[in-house]
Amino acid sequence: MLNFTDVTEFILLGLTSHREWQILFFIVFLVVYIITLVGNIGLIMLIKVSPQLNSPMYFFLSHLSFVDVCFSSNVTPKMLENLLSETKTISYNGCLVQCFFFIALVHVELFILAVMAFDRYMAIGKPLLYGSRMSRVVCVRLISFPYIYGFLTSLAATLWTYGLYFCGKIEINHFYCADPPLIKMACAGTFVKEFTMIILGGINGTYSLTVVVTSYLFILISILRMHSAEGRRKAFSTCGSHLTAVIIFYGTLIFMYLRRPTEESVEQGKMVAVFYTTVIPMLNPMIYSLRNKDVKEAVNKVMNRKCVTN
User: Fold this and answer.
1) Across 123-135, average pLDDT
2) Cα 8 from Cα 17, distance rounded (Å)
3) Taking the CB of residue 27, how many other CB atoms lie within 10 A of it?
4) Residue 2 resides in a domain
5) 120 CB-side CA count, 13 A
6) Is 4 part of any domain?
Protein backbone atom coordinates (compact mmCIF):
# COMPACT_ATOMS: atom_id res chain seq x y z
CA MET A 1 0.00 0.00 0.00
CA LEU A 2 1.29 3.46 -0.92
CA ASN A 3 1.18 6.17 1.73
CA PHE A 4 -0.13 9.13 -0.34
CA THR A 5 0.63 12.61 0.99
CA ASP A 6 -1.90 15.44 0.87
CA VAL A 7 0.47 17.99 -0.68
CA THR A 8 -0.15 21.70 0.01
CA GLU A 9 3.22 23.02 -1.16
CA PHE A 10 6.46 22.01 -2.84
CA ILE A 11 10.08 22.94 -2.15
CA LEU A 12 11.95 24.15 -5.24
CA LEU A 13 15.59 23.06 -4.95
CA GLY A 14 16.59 25.63 -7.58
CA LEU A 15 19.87 25.82 -9.45
CA THR A 16 22.27 25.63 -6.49
CA SER A 17 22.35 25.36 -2.70
CA HIS A 18 25.46 27.55 -2.35
CA ARG A 19 24.55 30.98 -0.98
CA GLU A 20 27.25 32.90 -2.84
CA TRP A 21 26.11 31.40 -6.17
CA GLN A 22 22.48 32.19 -5.36
CA ILE A 23 23.30 35.89 -4.93
CA LEU A 24 25.29 35.91 -8.19
CA PHE A 25 22.45 34.14 -10.04
CA PHE A 26 19.94 36.60 -8.61
CA ILE A 27 21.89 39.57 -10.01
CA VAL A 28 22.45 37.91 -13.41
CA PHE A 29 18.84 36.77 -13.89
CA LEU A 30 17.43 40.08 -12.64
CA VAL A 31 19.46 41.92 -15.29
CA VAL A 32 18.40 39.37 -17.95
CA TYR A 33 14.74 39.73 -16.93
CA ILE A 34 14.87 43.54 -17.11
CA ILE A 35 16.51 43.38 -20.57
CA THR A 36 13.82 40.88 -21.66
CA LEU A 37 10.98 43.16 -20.55
CA VAL A 38 12.52 46.32 -22.01
CA GLY A 39 13.48 44.63 -25.30
CA ASN A 40 10.19 42.86 -25.97
CA ILE A 41 7.85 45.61 -24.73
CA GLY A 42 9.93 48.17 -26.61
CA LEU A 43 9.65 46.13 -29.81
CA ILE A 44 5.86 45.78 -29.37
CA MET A 45 5.48 49.55 -28.90
CA LEU A 46 7.79 50.29 -31.84
CA ILE A 47 5.71 48.06 -34.14
CA LYS A 48 2.53 49.73 -32.90
CA VAL A 49 3.69 53.32 -33.57
CA SER A 50 5.71 52.79 -36.77
CA PRO A 51 3.77 52.84 -40.10
CA GLN A 52 6.64 51.11 -41.95
CA LEU A 53 6.27 48.11 -39.62
CA ASN A 54 2.57 47.76 -40.40
CA SER A 55 2.88 44.37 -42.14
CA PRO A 56 1.89 40.77 -41.26
CA MET A 57 5.49 39.84 -40.40
CA TYR A 58 5.72 42.48 -37.68
CA PHE A 59 2.17 41.78 -36.52
CA PHE A 60 3.22 38.17 -35.80
CA LEU A 61 6.53 39.36 -34.34
CA SER A 62 4.69 41.59 -31.85
CA HIS A 63 2.73 38.54 -30.66
CA LEU A 64 5.95 36.54 -30.35
CA SER A 65 7.38 39.30 -28.15
CA PHE A 66 4.19 39.35 -26.06
CA VAL A 67 4.42 35.58 -25.51
CA ASP A 68 8.11 35.90 -24.59
CA VAL A 69 7.24 38.50 -21.92
CA CYS A 70 4.54 36.21 -20.49
CA PHE A 71 6.81 33.15 -20.76
CA SER A 72 9.64 34.78 -18.84
CA SER A 73 7.29 36.40 -16.29
CA ASN A 74 5.71 33.03 -15.51
CA VAL A 75 9.03 31.64 -14.24
CA THR A 76 11.59 34.36 -13.48
CA PRO A 77 9.91 36.34 -10.63
CA LYS A 78 9.40 33.18 -8.53
CA MET A 79 12.94 32.04 -9.31
CA LEU A 80 14.33 35.43 -8.21
CA GLU A 81 12.25 35.31 -5.02
CA ASN A 82 13.50 31.83 -4.13
CA LEU A 83 17.14 32.74 -4.80
CA LEU A 84 16.95 35.21 -1.88
CA SER A 85 14.49 33.24 0.28
CA GLU A 86 15.30 30.64 2.92
CA THR A 87 12.11 28.59 2.43
CA LYS A 88 12.06 28.34 -1.41
CA THR A 89 8.50 26.99 -1.50
CA ILE A 90 5.63 27.18 -3.97
CA SER A 91 2.04 26.28 -3.13
CA TYR A 92 0.40 23.26 -4.79
CA ASN A 93 -2.10 25.51 -6.59
CA GLY A 94 0.68 27.92 -7.55
CA CYS A 95 2.62 24.99 -9.00
CA LEU A 96 -0.36 23.89 -11.12
CA VAL A 97 -0.91 27.47 -12.35
CA GLN A 98 2.76 27.77 -13.29
CA CYS A 99 2.59 24.41 -15.12
CA PHE A 100 -0.57 25.50 -16.96
CA PHE A 101 0.85 28.78 -18.27
CA PHE A 102 4.23 27.22 -19.05
CA ILE A 103 2.76 24.45 -21.23
CA ALA A 104 0.28 26.87 -22.85
CA LEU A 105 2.91 29.47 -23.73
CA VAL A 106 5.34 26.85 -25.08
CA HIS A 107 2.66 25.62 -27.49
CA VAL A 108 1.64 29.16 -28.43
CA GLU A 109 5.25 30.04 -29.28
CA LEU A 110 5.73 26.80 -31.24
CA PHE A 111 2.80 27.57 -33.51
CA ILE A 112 3.53 31.30 -33.79
CA LEU A 113 6.96 30.34 -35.15
CA ALA A 114 5.18 28.02 -37.63
CA VAL A 115 2.77 30.81 -38.66
CA MET A 116 5.72 33.17 -39.15
CA ALA A 117 7.40 30.61 -41.43
CA PHE A 118 4.22 30.36 -43.52
CA ASP A 119 4.07 34.18 -43.69
CA ARG A 120 7.66 34.29 -45.00
CA TYR A 121 6.76 31.72 -47.68
CA MET A 122 3.79 33.83 -48.80
CA ALA A 123 5.92 37.00 -48.88
CA ILE A 124 8.82 35.45 -50.84
CA GLY A 125 7.09 32.71 -52.84
CA LYS A 126 3.90 34.58 -53.80
CA PRO A 127 4.70 38.31 -53.54
CA LEU A 128 1.95 39.41 -55.95
CA LEU A 129 -0.74 37.64 -53.91
CA TYR A 130 0.77 38.47 -50.51
CA GLY A 131 -1.33 41.57 -49.83
CA SER A 132 -4.65 39.90 -50.58
CA ARG A 133 -3.90 36.45 -49.13
CA MET A 134 -2.41 37.81 -45.89
CA SER A 135 -5.11 40.37 -45.10
CA ARG A 136 -5.73 41.62 -41.56
CA VAL A 137 -8.62 39.18 -41.12
CA VAL A 138 -6.46 36.23 -42.21
CA CYS A 139 -3.63 37.32 -39.89
CA VAL A 140 -6.01 37.55 -36.91
CA ARG A 141 -7.33 34.05 -37.67
CA LEU A 142 -3.82 32.65 -38.05
CA ILE A 143 -2.63 34.16 -34.75
CA SER A 144 -5.79 33.05 -32.91
CA PHE A 145 -5.09 29.36 -33.52
CA PRO A 146 -1.85 29.16 -31.44
CA TYR A 147 -3.53 30.83 -28.44
CA ILE A 148 -6.72 28.73 -28.53
CA TYR A 149 -4.97 25.43 -29.23
CA GLY A 150 -2.10 26.13 -26.82
CA PHE A 151 -4.34 26.89 -23.86
CA LEU A 152 -6.72 23.97 -24.54
CA THR A 153 -3.76 21.58 -24.80
CA SER A 154 -2.33 22.98 -21.59
CA LEU A 155 -5.64 22.54 -19.77
CA ALA A 156 -5.65 18.82 -20.60
CA ALA A 157 -1.95 18.42 -19.72
CA THR A 158 -2.40 20.24 -16.38
CA LEU A 159 -5.34 18.01 -15.46
CA TRP A 160 -3.04 15.01 -15.98
CA THR A 161 -0.48 16.72 -13.73
CA TYR A 162 -3.25 17.09 -11.14
CA GLY A 163 -3.65 13.30 -11.33
CA LEU A 164 -0.13 12.69 -9.98
CA TYR A 165 0.17 11.30 -6.43
CA PHE A 166 3.04 11.99 -4.03
CA CYS A 167 4.33 9.90 -1.12
CA GLY A 168 6.10 12.20 1.30
CA LYS A 169 8.81 13.67 -0.91
CA ILE A 170 7.84 17.22 -1.90
CA GLU A 171 11.20 18.54 -3.17
CA ILE A 172 11.18 19.49 -6.87
CA ASN A 173 14.65 19.28 -8.39
CA HIS A 174 14.13 22.42 -10.46
CA PHE A 175 13.70 26.20 -10.21
CA TYR A 176 10.07 26.09 -11.41
CA CYS A 177 7.25 23.53 -11.59
CA ALA A 178 8.20 21.47 -14.63
CA ASP A 179 6.66 18.17 -15.71
CA PRO A 180 9.81 15.97 -15.83
CA PRO A 181 10.88 16.52 -12.16
CA LEU A 182 7.24 16.26 -10.99
CA ILE A 183 6.89 12.90 -12.77
CA LYS A 184 10.22 11.73 -11.33
CA MET A 185 9.07 12.72 -7.84
CA ALA A 186 5.54 11.23 -8.01
CA CYS A 187 4.83 7.71 -6.78
CA ALA A 188 1.59 7.03 -8.71
CA GLY A 189 -0.31 8.33 -11.72
CA THR A 190 2.92 8.79 -13.67
CA PHE A 191 2.26 6.48 -16.64
CA VAL A 192 -0.58 8.52 -18.17
CA LYS A 193 1.19 11.82 -17.50
CA GLU A 194 4.54 10.66 -18.88
CA PHE A 195 2.93 9.02 -21.91
CA THR A 196 0.78 12.05 -22.77
CA MET A 197 3.68 14.48 -22.23
CA ILE A 198 5.85 12.64 -24.76
CA ILE A 199 2.99 12.01 -27.23
CA LEU A 200 1.60 15.57 -27.07
CA GLY A 201 5.08 17.07 -27.25
CA GLY A 202 6.01 14.80 -30.15
CA ILE A 203 2.82 15.41 -32.16
CA ASN A 204 2.70 19.18 -31.64
CA GLY A 205 6.44 19.62 -32.12
CA THR A 206 6.42 17.46 -35.27
CA TYR A 207 3.36 19.20 -36.73
CA SER A 208 4.65 22.74 -36.16
CA LEU A 209 8.16 21.79 -37.29
CA THR A 210 6.71 20.21 -40.46
CA VAL A 211 5.00 23.52 -41.28
CA VAL A 212 8.32 25.35 -40.73
CA VAL A 213 10.41 22.90 -42.80
CA THR A 214 7.85 22.73 -45.64
CA SER A 215 7.58 26.52 -45.75
CA TYR A 216 11.36 26.89 -45.95
CA LEU A 217 11.67 24.25 -48.67
CA PHE A 218 9.27 26.29 -50.82
CA ILE A 219 11.11 29.48 -49.83
CA LEU A 220 14.42 27.94 -50.93
CA ILE A 221 12.91 26.92 -54.28
CA SER A 222 11.56 30.46 -54.74
CA ILE A 223 14.93 32.01 -53.88
CA LEU A 224 16.79 29.75 -56.33
CA ARG A 225 14.41 30.87 -59.07
CA MET A 226 15.20 34.54 -58.44
CA HIS A 227 17.40 36.23 -61.07
CA SER A 228 18.37 39.20 -58.89
CA ALA A 229 21.29 38.76 -56.48
CA GLU A 230 19.90 41.64 -54.40
CA GLY A 231 16.53 39.87 -54.17
CA ARG A 232 18.19 36.66 -52.99
CA ARG A 233 20.25 38.53 -50.41
CA LYS A 234 17.18 40.31 -49.05
CA ALA A 235 15.19 37.05 -48.90
CA PHE A 236 17.97 35.23 -47.01
CA SER A 237 18.33 38.20 -44.65
CA THR A 238 14.59 38.20 -43.92
CA CYS A 239 14.53 34.47 -43.17
CA GLY A 240 17.81 34.30 -41.23
CA SER A 241 16.44 35.83 -38.04
CA HIS A 242 13.41 33.55 -37.96
CA LEU A 243 15.49 30.42 -38.69
CA THR A 244 17.86 31.29 -35.84
CA ALA A 245 14.95 31.64 -33.40
CA VAL A 246 13.40 28.36 -34.61
CA ILE A 247 16.62 26.35 -34.25
CA ILE A 248 17.32 27.65 -30.73
CA PHE A 249 13.76 27.19 -29.44
CA TYR A 250 13.02 23.78 -30.98
CA GLY A 251 16.47 22.42 -30.13
CA THR A 252 16.20 23.20 -26.42
CA LEU A 253 12.62 21.87 -26.14
CA ILE A 254 13.49 18.59 -27.89
CA PHE A 255 16.43 18.11 -25.52
CA MET A 256 14.21 18.85 -22.51
CA TYR A 257 10.93 17.04 -23.16
CA LEU A 258 11.27 14.25 -25.72
CA ARG A 259 13.10 11.99 -23.26
CA ARG A 260 11.98 9.87 -20.35
CA PRO A 261 12.43 11.72 -17.02
CA THR A 262 15.48 10.28 -15.21
CA GLU A 263 17.70 11.79 -12.53
CA GLU A 264 20.32 12.62 -15.14
CA SER A 265 17.87 14.04 -17.72
CA VAL A 266 16.16 16.21 -15.05
CA GLU A 267 19.54 17.63 -13.97
CA GLN A 268 20.58 18.33 -17.57
CA GLY A 269 17.13 19.72 -18.35
CA LYS A 270 17.46 22.19 -15.51
CA MET A 271 20.46 23.78 -17.19
CA VAL A 272 18.72 23.81 -20.57
CA ALA A 273 15.58 25.31 -18.97
CA VAL A 274 17.61 28.32 -17.85
CA PHE A 275 18.33 28.96 -21.51
CA TYR A 276 14.79 28.78 -22.89
CA THR A 277 12.99 30.44 -19.95
CA THR A 278 15.34 33.41 -19.53
CA VAL A 279 17.88 33.69 -22.36
CA ILE A 280 15.70 32.98 -25.44
CA PRO A 281 13.04 35.60 -24.52
CA MET A 282 15.87 38.10 -24.11
CA LEU A 283 17.56 37.14 -27.40
CA ASN A 284 14.48 37.18 -29.66
CA PRO A 285 14.16 41.01 -29.88
CA MET A 286 17.89 41.21 -30.63
CA ILE A 287 17.74 38.44 -33.26
CA TYR A 288 14.87 40.14 -35.08
CA SER A 289 16.15 43.71 -34.69
CA LEU A 290 19.92 43.91 -35.04
CA ARG A 291 20.05 42.79 -38.70
CA ASN A 292 16.66 44.20 -39.67
CA LYS A 293 16.85 47.36 -41.78
CA ASP A 294 13.15 48.24 -41.29
CA VAL A 295 13.40 48.05 -37.49
CA LYS A 296 16.59 50.14 -37.46
CA GLU A 297 14.93 52.81 -39.61
CA ALA A 298 11.84 52.78 -37.38
CA VAL A 299 14.02 53.24 -34.28
CA ASN A 300 15.87 56.15 -35.93
CA LYS A 301 12.58 57.85 -36.89
CA VAL A 302 11.19 57.48 -33.36
CA MET A 303 14.42 58.85 -31.87
CA ASN A 304 14.41 61.77 -34.31
CA ARG A 305 10.79 62.58 -33.41
CA LYS A 306 11.74 62.55 -29.74
CA CYS A 307 14.66 64.90 -30.39
CA VAL A 308 12.48 67.31 -32.39
CA THR A 309 9.78 67.26 -29.67
CA ASN A 310 12.34 67.99 -26.98
Assistant:
1) 87
2) 23
3) 11
4) no
5) 29
6) no
State the Cα–Cα distance between residues 22 and 25, nearest whole angstrom.
Answer: 5
Q: Which residues pair with 188 in a beta bridge?
A: 165
Question: What would the pLDDT profile of 143-178 be if each residue is shown by its tens digit?
Answer: 999 999 999 999 998 988 888 888 776 888 888 888
Beta bridge partners of 91: 9
CATH number of residue 237's parent domain: 1.20.1070.10
Rounded distance between C-alpha atoms, residue 50 and residue 44, angstroms: 10
Residues in Cβ contact with 28 at an 8 Å cutoff, skipping those fewer than 6 apart: none
**Calpha distance 34→32 (Å, rounded):** 6
Structural domains counted in the chain: 1
**What is the rounded distance in angstroms from the CA atom of residue 109 to the CA atom of residue 146?**
7
**Higher-confidence residue: 118 or 185?**
118
